[in-house]
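Write out the 3D structure for:
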Amino acid sequence: MQLNWLKKAAFSLMSLAVISGCSTVITSAGNNLADQLGRAVASSDDLETVKDGIPAYMLLLEGIMQDDTENPDLLLSSANLYAAYATIFVTDSERQRRMASKAHNYSLAAACLEDDDFCNLKLLKYDQFTQLIDEVDEDEVDLLFTLGKSWAAHMQASSDDWNQVVHLPKVQYIMERVIAIDGTIDNGNAHYYLGIIHSLVPPALGGKPQLALKHFEEADQIANQQNLMIKVTLAERYARVIFDRDLHDKWLKEVIANQDDFAQYRLINTIAKEKAEALLKSADEFF
């Protein structure tokens, strides 16, 4: 029963974790164009323009990488971009699977270039895997975080394939290590990932909603309560789990009523408001 439930697990919520990282959708040390595009994407409230515009940059990166095949920064930039785009904008399941797989492969290639020990990462047994991840220090934390994000996106796009879903504990361990090194990375989104991971399994099957709540609240504090998607996810992945209608509606109404304009969260907050309205409309059917 647990196996079947996990194979059908709500990995769609994992996509919110990728979306919540839009402020760093493209990260490439020393690459001004990548930084500028990342800020433009995050500060836009026009989802269609972003959807139509990003593919040109994706093709540009592909072209550059053909002449620079061993540049980990380019690989990580592409991994972030493909994972985010596939999760946010792609609805065709096969196309999403291909793009998310490409993102995952790019991050693995970048990790291999940075450290030979990472070249066979997916083949390692769990105890070998955790030992290797424990050796990562602050110099490699950005790489590790991108690896975890793209891996999660890959699992989300392949949620019907147990051979992929079974790696969820490894993604969890990556995020736990990232937090141990720098809990504030990407405005607290490593905590946000762990909140989602701990909320995927129902309490009856061993889920830990209180631990999920702790990570969501930590992410919200680090983001200075400016990332509205966190409250939306709290409503869906915590309030609904513990069946608290009052808390559920309170959080969602706060998101909808919020008129603050936080530039770096403009895109994610636009998506959050749409999601909040949809959750409120479906509340009577759920509770």
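The longest helix spans residues 93-114.
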